[in-house]
């Protein structure tokens, strides 16, 4: 036995209890304890059946993440589960909380399963670029068929025990004390019943083949380029078409293929990076301020989205707009979100009404006098924002936090409009703010620790992924976007069409190319920024005016039906525009440029080199605390494919020496734009990488 696993006996029932807080993870001591306990219970002639149960808040919720990347010790989880299933006495798994991954595979290896209706079960390994490798892909479809198995494994999302019971995965729903009901159930069962022996007629049925076909179609669009989903489908097919031992061997080989892949390394990195992003020095030094109500200034797209995110987290919101017409428009923007949810059946009208009861609107800034935080979401102009902050400074209470939802503007310049700059931070939400998970928390020079901690507390309450950013133009995400956007413009002028560039980016794994993204956001936004920056532009730097020429025609993207792409009849997906190609050719001729072709590989290598080189500068200047924060920002805010880990992790896997060599070659063409970051040079010279910086 082990300290984490205890064996006791109630009448003729052995009770094996896992007690490894907080989530009873299946680390080595737990696996060894389970093995030894099963052996002991089986050898005890007075034991008629066995109950497996978890102490605390949950049945084992999966593997021990602290063992990721280390050599596993025997007994291995698949062998432990086989030992449970091979037990000559009936084993009842009593599930509560969240039985996920290896935990649910333990339950599948047990002979019977009982759980309260609100317990959750799932196999989320696909989120780490893996597949259930301890028999899950072989046992689950034998119990419930291909459709539910594939839905659970490919989505990575848990389902309720009630749904699992209806599908045959859970044998009994407990309505009272789980331990007592599990013991009673164990006393009733008469025989061992192994999932690996189950054959329920799922083979060669129409539903079986349809489930496989539907899954293949789904992953070709929603999970493009990912290995694990393909392997999951192949393993489930093997479960339903081959003997258990053969399917099990195929599953194990597929698991190790996924585990050794760069995709799994990237997704495991992203998993840890997401959790590390909330660990910031300010939050370790101070507790957040009270946060029980907020104000939002501005009811446009961003203001409404922020309001919905706050309402969804249970925070009362007071929205400020300039007049009655704007108030009505702001409320409509908020209600539209909930009306869509009602129409889809995801909320009832009563639930919508309950949420909207937390919402009030006003034209009087004085109505914000008692809120705990105010988030400004007005037009992206410094003078407008300073005017708003000056008004807020006059009316809000002394302890309130002030935040700006700016994408680019210097927070210090905004906070200087108040008498309390230490209480001002940036909260850069991404559009749509109620859906996008990233929240850049921008820390200006004078921000107090507890004010920064309050920003992170808000992110946690809203279920956002927070990243701390220093106060630099564009912060982390938009600053890096600016660089690789310029790189794309250079390639476009040098011979690659915007459609070639977007195709390469899409194939790499982004949901859309950069020019399609510009069209979606609105080309006029970037045009305004470029015009504002023009007086300070280095005349020696290369400037590409193609996007300006497009904007001069009034083509601003999807909202005008035309940008880099054509959007006839309100289409959401654009088609190439021959007139844009003429504009591009005209700019090339005006500059007397000779053009060349770019392969997809060349496009991606330059695109990512620009991204990583600027990421190094963001790190060197302290705008980002660590490389993994840049990865989190890129994944959750800009569509970087999660299975590639983020740009800095991708660079590590690509090879920093190779990337530096590429940049040095590009530097011969353009020594201003392609100046290698001193940090990148230092890392290569010292044989270190970005993972090393993450560990510092």
In brief:
The chain has 696 residues and is of the alpha/beta class. The chain has 30 helices and 19 strands.
Write out key terms for the chains shown.
30 helices; alpha/beta; 19 strands; 6-stranded mixed β-sheet; 696 residues
Helix/strand structural class: alpha/beta
Radius of gyration: 28 Å
- N→C terminal distance: 37 Å
How are strands sequenced across the largest beta sheet?
12-11-10-13-14-15-16-17
Number of helices: 30
Low-confidence stretches: none
- Note the main sheet: 8 strands, mixed
Shape: globular
The pLDDT mean sits at 95
- The tally of beta strands, per DSSP, is 19
User: Helix fraction?
Assistant: 40-55%
Instruction: Provide the β-strand percentage band.
Output: 5-15%
